[in-house]
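Title: Comparing notes on inverse folding

I've been comparing how different people in this forum approach sequence design from structure. To keep things fair, I'm posting one structure and asking everyone to reply with a full sequence. Here's the target:
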């Protein structure tokens, strides 16, 4: 049984959407959601505004798509790392790698990180809310698998604080910031101490 083939038109449409979202990452990363415009996004993508509107009805739809794009990238990146957590002791080995992957993802998705500063992921109406919930579930489930004697609510609280600390640090120390590497190193030290105190 053969798989469904995409037509050249479908491939071109997918490429166009990708160009729009890459342009939106740049525009929103530089100007924020409020300051970004569909006109400039279209220009960055090499399209007319009318062509952009054939794929996205407005800026809100683009922002939603950026969050979905980030989730598609972040889910496999983190799932592979947390699969190595079999005991609490494994956290020391994976924490640094998780931070490195978070930093790399931010470099690829600057618009997403900028939008999380304007539309906080803990708000249910934020496009980033579904991403946050997915990551909290992923990490809390990995911790539960180690046999840690904490309630699900306690584990979620621990994970939420860790995720928010990393997100906030990256958002305020974007690529190129002089204190970025030092700040991430400090976050790693703090999170190790916090997790050791809360989970052991």
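Reply #1:
Here's my take.
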């Amino acid at each position: 049984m053969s798989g469904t083939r995409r037509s050249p038109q479908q491939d071109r449409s997918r490429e166009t959407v990708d160009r729009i979202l890459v342009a939106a990452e740049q525009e929103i990363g530089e100007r924020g959601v409020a300051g970004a415009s569909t006109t400039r996004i279209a220009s960055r993508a090499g399209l007319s505004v009318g062509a952009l509107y054939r794929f996205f009805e407005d800026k809100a739809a683009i922002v939603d798509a950026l969050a979905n794009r980030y989730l598609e990238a972040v889910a496999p990146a983190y799932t592979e790392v947390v699969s190595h957590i079999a005991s609490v002791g494994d956290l020391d080995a994976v924490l640094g790698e998780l931070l490195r992957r978070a930093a790399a993802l931010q470099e690829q998705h600057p618009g997403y990180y900028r939008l999380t500063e304007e539309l906080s992921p803990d708000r249910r109406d934020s496009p980033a809310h579904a991403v946050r919930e997915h990551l909290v579930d992923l990490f809390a489930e990995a911790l539960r698998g180690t046999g840690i004697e904490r309630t699900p609510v306690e584990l979620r609280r621990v994970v939420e604080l860790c995720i928010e600390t990393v997100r906030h640090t990256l958002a305020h120390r974007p690529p190129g910031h002089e204190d970025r590497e030092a700040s991430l190193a400090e976050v790693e030290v703090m999170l190790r101490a916090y997790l050791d105190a809360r989970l052991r």
